[in-house]
Amino acid sequence: MLTVQGINVYYGAIHALKDLSIQVNQGEIVTLIGANGAGKSTLLKTLSGLLKPKTGSIEFLGKSITNQSVQAIVKQGLIHCPEGRRVFANMSVEENLELGAYLQDGKSLAADFERVYSMFPRLLERKKQQAGTLSGGEQQMLAMGRAIMGHPKLLLLDEPSMGLAPLLVQDIFKIIQEVNAAGTTVLLVEQNAHQALKIAHRAYVLETGRVVLEGDASELADSEEIKMAYLGH
Amino acid sequence: MKKLNSKFWLGIIIALAFYGIVQVLLTTGVFNDVTRSMLLLVGVNVMLAVSLNLINGITGQFSIGHAGFMSVGAYTSAILTLDYDVPFILAIIIGGIVAAIFGVLIGMPTLRLNGDYLAIATLGFGEIIRIILLNTEYVGGASGLSGIPAKSTWTIIFFFTLFTVVLINNFIRSTHGRACLAIRENEIAAEAMGINTTLYKVIAFTIGALFAGMAGGLSAHTFYVITPGSFNFLKSFEILVMVVLGGLGSTAGSIVGAVFVTLLYTYLREFPEWRMIIYSIVLILMMIFRPSGLLGKTRINFGKLGKKEAKANGSIDSSTP
After folding, report:
1. Is A100 near chain B, with CB under 8 Å?
2. Considering the entire predicted model, what is its pTM?
3. Nearest to A50 among B178, B181, B191 (CB)
4. B202 near B101, Cβ under 8 Å?
């Protein structure tokens, strides 16, 4: 579904992604784990077109999206749910979701609302509330719901569990699995490697802009190297 | 949808009734000349404030070069009526269009900047225009243009103002306006949702410049004389004060702010040295006691025209406090 081949991305003089290649297959949950600064968020931003690679190619659903605009990429169903939730704080929950469907023609709007509200009943309870007044967990649900409103075929989730209480983290991961079960492929960036490996099918380990390990999530979770470096036991 | 349209027409009827009453008071001589020129100034200032609010309040791009666009419109239309005998209304519209072209030209490079940097760039733009006008013999240099026919009447200014408010308010409530709001709320998220942020910033900037240019033309044809000095950064600041006083992001607020500042301006005419002090005090008090402006985020209760946008509108109205 998504094939990234040998991309190099720079922030000015800083070489953030070095010759990086990954692959995501239809229906999978793939997770990217790695320390701060390993390039996980950079990779997601590059996939959604917010950053442009200097070299290398990105192919989505058999078509090159390497130098396409964000709008064109979103339209094809590759949707990025950015780090730190970034809800539109002064708008209501409902308006936030509406903006998620910004590129849709509006015909399926009612059905999309229903789908998101059934996934996140909390959002339905609070649909008239200002997004900035929601709790962290609710804001994360809103950010995910907003992304889902755009009919993602591939959903990029950047640190959905960041700053959330442990119980909420469980909820969020459960929801990711539900979204995936409903037919959306998920590429998940997580600091919480333990949880991420539990729900993912496959995983890539990033270090300073390179893929250093890849494989089945369950195998990686068992490998001594990963346990030492990321799982803390 | 029906209800929204009827609300829209109610707003129009109230506005027209206001127009009629003032018109009668003017023709019967109840309002003297001072009041009349104040009313014209109110109209011009409402146009300026509402158009700046689209850029600063709705799209969240901190621009303080509005007087620059105003001067482009003022000079263009004044030259057209003075030297080329272009019909007045057409001259105003061309003035607005030329200002809008400047809006696109200035907007494309500068809107890549954020916050303070954009403010400095737009401030610089306003000053550049002023200096160019100051040094151009053709437009009279420092003494400016005079003898501009005073063709702005209450009727003309009223309908231009009404048109500005209706058009900008409808824009704000459309899908496009929502995109602009999203940019203000969170630019990265807006972009990730597929909103072309640069495009919408330039659109907002251009529409703002268009109406600022028209307002400039109307004011030039109200006060006979324009000089580069009347479009210095204090003028930009004055427009900004109107928007902030009324409530950043609220069209109704911008109108209230413009009226308030114009009244203040008119009644403090005899104490010009106090004017800026009072502005400042009012602003400071405002920031302390009512930081979101006189009307806060209140949306103008005007409904809107057309049915395509009306659908998206339902949720806005119900969420208005």
Report:
1. yes
2. 0.84
3. B191
4. no
